[in-house]
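Study this protein:
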Amino acid sequence: MTFAEKLDLLMIISRTSNSLLARNISLDASFISRLRRGVRTPVENAGYIPAMARYFARICNSEYQKAALSEAIKNSSKIKPHEAETLENLILQWLLEKMPDNSGSIDNFLQTVGGFQFKRPAVAENAEAPTDPGSLKDVEIFYGAQGKRTAVLHFLSLIAQCPTPQTILLYSNEDLSWLSEDPAYFARWAALMLQVLKNGNRIKMIHTINRDFDEMLTGIKGWVPLYMTGSVEPYYCPKTRDGIFRRTLFIAPQTAAVTSSSVRDGIQNAANLLFTRPEAIAALQNEYQDFLALCRPLMRIFNPFNPGNYLETLTEFEAEKGHTILRTNTLSNITMPVSIALRHTEHLAKAAAESLLAYQSEKNSRFFDMLEDHCFTEILTLPELETILQGKAVMGFSDMPGGIPAYYTPQEYKEHLENVIILLKSHNNYHVHLTDEEQLDGSMVYVKEGVGVLVGKTTYPSVVFAVNESNMTSAFWDYMNIHLLKDTKKNYDRRHTIAHLEAFAAQL
């Protein structure tokens, strides 16, 4: 369990409101609310956690409260309740128990995004032949993990042969090892999925966000090539579920459906049912739609081939006030002088040019307004000087409006750098940390505390994932703060940064 989930459970068991806890431990009620929702995570050695443990140990004095708390800790932690000396010590150990470090899984996700290329996945040798629709009964049953693999291949093969495009409905909170543990099978699955999308089908996918964060991000990473097509709509359900009784629903309304159930990770014992009878498919479709009505979009995905309302989403994100960290290997659009943007709209269609100019003309007032009370920090990697002098320094996400990337002239790059220097000199809440780290080259993370995160690929063709789910936002916020802390330890100094940028600009 996360700290937020533990705190929320303690407050439910003890019937404690945000304001009551705040009064008892001398914190602001809004801060308690952010901790409880996972918008904020406690810093190391936070002094208020022992105070929380003392409060909850005192208030949880009935037998049912102690039993509920002991059971929750036993089921979600390695801590043994009977070994704790006191209830206060037990709660304190539980609250201080470290969650797994998510940095590695986020690194892997960003490397996947940054290094993505559109290419057809290799099909595994000896792959199964496509399913003959006439060879299937109304209901076929396949057992265990291997049975699920077989059922899903039949399901996708039937969709690939269907002449009419449809919207496929997918959900599973069952263990995903059936898909990931066999590379040859995964290659076959990926090839079939891309063929299904190439035929004009679309997908609605409900992701499970109460999985372990690493498992969730790994699952999303596997879908990156499919997201890039613009044919997948990802959702999530904000309602809490216990994760004990699990369900799979894969539905192609005009073709077939696969369904199964399991307890916890017990897919080896599951029966996987493949339906082709229209009445059964319709019933399962109704069940899925009832579930979908409880869900929210997990992310919006934009690329040059499906730009959608990218600039509107960017404007919406930047209009929200909050502390912000941006890590990129290109100069950011938010600090770009409007005069440079004006020079690069001539090749765009009229509508795209007007949208870009509207964004550029309004961004400065929003940015300056936010800097009044909130910090904006850039972790920036400058390109090689020769790259700029040769006119090969790309403007970040410039291919999004019109499909064609734009590049800085040396003079334009100098103008942009000089604007960054002016911002550093005139706004104390604007910070730039220069880094030579190339580990995540080609990717961008733009996160605003408590608001959301934009994750992007900066090389052509660019892509942006816009996410406002609170757990993912908090994870990326913590991840960026870890990177920021590493840079701060290198004796960050504003005057030194300004001097470095001025010397770099002088060479242009």
Remarks:
- The longest strand covers residues 245-252.
- Confidence is low (pLDDT under 50) at residues 120-129.
